[in-house]
Design goal:
With 205 residues, the chain is an alpha/beta fold. It is built from four helices and nine strands. 17% of the residues are buried. InterPro entries: Leu-rich_rpt, Leu-rich_rpt_typical-subtyp, LRR_dom_sf, LRR_domain-containing. This is Leucine-rich repeat-containing protein 58.
Length: 205
Amino acid sequence: SLEFLYLGGNFITSIPPELANLPSLSYLVLCDNKIQSIPPQLAQLPSLRSLSLHNNLLTYLPREILNLVHLEELSLRGNPLVVRFVRDLTYNPPSLQELAGRTVKTRNVPYAPSDLPENLVRYLSLASNCPNPKCGGVYFDSCVRQIKFVDFCGKYRLPLMHYLCSPECSSPCSSASQSSTSQSESDSEDEASVAARRMQKVLLG
């Protein structure tokens, strides 16, 4: 019948899977330890509403955490996975030259090689299309890196790097093999929507 378990600040390095045998556990505090991974069995806690994991050594979370259907609060700040995530999202604003180049390319402003200096013509030829099909924008030097996990051959989930034109432009990437990956992208979108519904509050910092 245990509902609240506080194990913070005990230099714990691993979580015993036996915690899954506490069906009434609603609040689990494991902050300020040395935990490096979460056992998948933890997802078998049917009543868990709050999970505090901040200030540990976590670099990833198991997929099974999505099975915590009653989880409302997940604290992850101070873990390598959050630090890396925030660092990877750093975005340098585009320069005035890039903004001008984006405008020329997205609005199809006509120009000829005789209209511009050779270096600007060469610069405009380096535009990359944003992979977000709903965007239609381009980028040159300033872009956002995004990691997306996609199914591969129905057996593996591979982390793929995508480059987007701005932080607001976040969507599954379309590729030359779109027909072969459309199902996995759809699954990822469904998975994301399920996660959003179930994870009402995530404390990152």
